[in-house]
Design a protein that fits this description.
Strand content: 5-15%
Shape: globular
Number of domains: 1
CATH class: Mainly Alpha
Number of strands: 2
Distance between the termini: 71 Å
Helix content: 40-55%
Strand order of the largest sheet: 1-2
Order of helices and strands: HHHEEHH
Number of helices: 5
CATH architecture: Orthogonal Bundle
Length: about 120
């Protein structure tokens, strides 16, 4: 029997050559990109699965709101990436639930609003 050939997957073209590898990218380089990253790029940078990022957008809709461009493609800013990192840290290191993370984010951002 002849093995069936699998069609090649179409990969999303990344704008940065450094993000094509599965390597982590240094923070200064992210700032050079002006923070407008796709969900795939954010997934590689933070180590959070794309599906998890979409889920977090629904659960933390007051804090994590990426911009949308044509075809509903998400564009994450540096602030969004920082929020993803905070959520990941609270989940992985402090073992907080979704509700606990929401409360912590609410407290963090209400303090920032009070400082201004």
């Amino acid at each position: 029997m002849c093995p069936i050939k699998q069609p090649f997957k179409k990969y999303h073209a990344l704008t940065s050559p450094d993000l094509k590898d599965n390597k982590r990218t240094h923070e200064p380089y992210i700032k050079m990109l002006d923070g407008m990253l796709t969900i795939g790029q954010v997934s590689k940078l933070t180590g959070v699965n794309k599906t998890t990022l979409r889920y977090w957008e629904r659960k933390f809709d007051k804090f994590l709101v990426p911009k949308r461009i044509e075809k509903s493609q998400r564009q994450y800013t540096l602030k969004d990436i920082e929020i993803v990192k905070i959520i990941k840290k609270l989940r992985d290191e402090e073992y907080l639930t979704i509700k606990g993370i929401s409360l912590r984010l609410k407290n963090m951002y209400s303090q920032h609003e009070d400082d201004k």
